[in-house]
């Protein structure tokens, strides 16, 4: 095992990743594996696999949680903070500046380039559904469960119904006995005392508090919406879209055009997609809103990592618990499929020209493997020329 790195070393390693990790959560996990297993040998292959498995089972941004866990394993709580700051700040700052720019020149958000970005989002979410479906729904039972969840949420897609659908999917996984591969038992965790329980209680208390009615648009409301989204999202990344759309577009806080323009911009920057929260927070609440939204959306996932690491020893050897979580993951695919229709498709595709561009963009992503950070500005340019 290599010597324990300093706060500065962990921060700089993750800062470089935060500046260069394009491609979304799946790509981030590949970058982490190359950096921390092969290059630096901070973890073995088996230990890294267990970290990824744990974070996939928890609500929140999976790739950011993996980075947080690696920072914790190498530098305890200071290391976790260094990892989160380094990986998150680059994209968060860029998206905050983008939101502030739209606030200064609101007419810019009405151009054809926004239409291009919205159509790009359709292709990105479609590709995410395809990839996640192949990974999380490898058999007929899980594919059927995902389709049922999608059909239900297309008709009744409120936040409460989304929570209910995922809970029912978890129970279905338990009843059906959906199999899960067993973890290796390689990971050794530096967790002692009662701190994990404190983190779990804090997570639950803040989640209950986030449901308290608050005036739309205020900073406490912003914090509550972000915390609730970060706490209830399984799969991270694109899956947060329906939760945030429910809170920020359906409530009238943002227009659908601005919301999807920001989400499209989030595809063009490196780092975690959850930094889209900085765009939403800065839209109407400036820099203070960006900071509050960013911290609030990442906080529940971070608390769950610290609380869940000891629990992993039990979950990885408990077949019924893993079957229930497999059902939840299948439900997540259905949730994202429903989101692909509404609001993504319904607000972006208005005619045959838009549909044709979506097909071309999806083909570039799925077949040609063109990076999203290349396609995002190209989509904006095509929109400006065509719409």
TrEMBL record:
<feature type="transmembrane region" description="Helical">
    <location>
        <begin position="196"/>
        <end position="214"/>
    </location>
</feature>
<keyword id="KW-1003">Cell membrane</keyword>
<feature type="transmembrane region" description="Helical">
    <location>
        <begin position="12"/>
        <end position="31"/>
    </location>
</feature>
<feature type="transmembrane region" description="Helical">
    <location>
        <begin position="145"/>
        <end position="176"/>
    </location>
</feature>
<dbReference type="Pfam" id="PF02417">
    <property type="entry name" value="Chromate_transp"/>
</dbReference>
<dbReference type="GO" id="GO:0015109">
    <property type="term" value="F:chromate transmembrane transporter activity"/>
</dbReference>
<dbReference type="GO" id="GO:0005886">
    <property type="term" value="C:plasma membrane"/>
</dbReference>
<protein>
    <submittedName>
        <fullName>Chromate transporter</fullName>
    </submittedName>
</protein>
<keyword id="KW-1133">Transmembrane helix</keyword>
<feature type="transmembrane region" description="Helical">
    <location>
        <begin position="353"/>
        <end position="376"/>
    </location>
</feature>
<feature type="transmembrane region" description="Helical">
    <location>
        <begin position="287"/>
        <end position="312"/>
    </location>
</feature>
<feature type="transmembrane region" description="Helical">
    <location>
        <begin position="111"/>
        <end position="133"/>
    </location>
</feature>
<feature type="transmembrane region" description="Helical">
    <location>
        <begin position="80"/>
        <end position="105"/>
    </location>
</feature>
<feature type="transmembrane region" description="Helical">
    <location>
        <begin position="324"/>
        <end position="341"/>
    </location>
</feature>
<comment type="similarity">
    <text>Belongs to the chromate ion transporter (CHR) (TC 2.A.51) family.</text>
</comment>
<feature type="transmembrane region" description="Helical">
    <location>
        <begin position="226"/>
        <end position="244"/>
    </location>
</feature>
<dbReference type="InterPro" id="IPR003370">
    <property type="entry name" value="Chromate_transpt"/>
</dbReference>
<keyword id="KW-0812">Transmembrane</keyword>
<dbReference type="InterPro" id="IPR014047">
    <property type="entry name" value="Chr_Tranpt_l_chain"/>
</dbReference>
<keyword id="KW-0472">Membrane</keyword>
